[in-house]
Design a protein that fits this description.
With 98 residues, the protein is mainly α. Helices cover 90% and strands 0% of the residues. This is DUF3618 domain-containing protein. It comes from Streptomyces axinellae.
Length: 98
């Protein structure tokens, strides 16, 4: 006998390969369906860039607000407090030395 496959075996192998190819095509189709189109990607990227720019602007405004609060604190609280306490300290030092 020869090692040549029978016609039935060839058909079975062909059907197996055809099934494999169909499965591969189905898997490719499923992967393509999960991919994002370029337009959607561009829109998402643009929206994300806009959000980042907005957050950076808000952070800068917060930093400016913190600086303004510190200036107010120094100008409205610390300077008058020093203005009141400095003469008292000077009088106590002078009065204690005489």
């Amino acid at each position: 006998m020869t090692d040549e496959p029978t016609l039935g075996e060839i058909v079975r192998r062909f059907e197996d390969r055809l099934t494999d190819v169909r499965d591969d095509i189905k898997q490719l189709g499923d992967r393509i369906d999960t991919k994002v189109s370029q337009e959607v990607y561009d829109l998402r990227h643009e929206a994300l860039s806009h959000r980042v720019a907005t957050l950076e602007t808000l952070r800068e405004k917060d930093a400016e607000r913190i600086v303004a609060t510190r200036r107010w604190l120094v100008g409205a609280v610390i300077v008058p407090l020093i203005g009141i306490l400095l003469p008292v300290v000077v009088l106590l030092v002078q009065g204690g030395g005489s």
